[in-house]
Amino acid sequence: MSQTIRYPEILEMARREGKVTVEHLAEHFNVTLQTIRRDLSDLADAGRLERVHGGAVLPSGTINIGYEERRRMNADGKAAMARACAAQIPEDSAIFLNIGTSTEAVAAALIHHRNLLVVTNNMNVANILSQNRDCEVIVTGGSLRQSDGGLIGDITKASIRQFKFDIGVIGCSAIDRDGDILDFDVQEVGVSQAILNRSRRKVLVADGSKFTRTAPARITSLGEIDMVVTDRAPARDLQDRCDDWQTQVIVAAPGT
């Protein structure tokens, strides 16, 4: 198999899993470790991947991955996280679901919940939950971000401040090694902070790829979050920090 044939599949695996390793790729393509290292170096030189010890990850920076591409990435992992998150949301509660493909998956997992009040700044979440007749959906105002159906800005934050939520569920673009939760859009960060300030219980849904990415704008620390739902356990040192902070980490592997 030539390099040019391997490259698209390597990139697709990196998009799906968040990270690829030299050993796994060598076994998958039945080539030597040296061959895969050259492939990853070529992709890194082209700006398609970022080399890390033992493999490569999607490149970090100041621009997020396209929304449709994010929606396709790690769909099984997001579905498992969504089911685990929905299991923590009791019926007869008021919740907020914000922008993101992970929160959209949570909305889909809430289709059969009863007597929910869901406030959202995500038009896709509102459309999903319109199928649940036992769910009242309130959409905040704000400026529509056409790329992903999100509502952001001062009007959005003012709408959020009118409520007190039992549970606020947010997503993010990255989680730093020190436990900081990060995003790309400063306006979206302000909305996420407003959600957390108005929520009795704070929940983050973030697939394992977020532990290997970075973004420039800080939302808050995992120490200020009650629960993290992910599909892959964080590094041991970050798990230890979560334990110290009494931040519960639920790992929902695909297929569960």
From TrEMBL:
Keywords: Repressor, Transcription, Transcription regulation. GO terms for molecular function: DNA-binding transcription factor activity. Residues 3-58 form the HTH deoR-type domain. Gene3D superfamilies: Winged helix-like DNA-binding domain superfamily/Winged helix DNA-binding domain. It holds the Pfam family HTH_DeoR. PROSITE patterns: HTH_DEOR_2. This is DeoR family transcriptional regulator. It comes from Pelagivirga sediminicola.
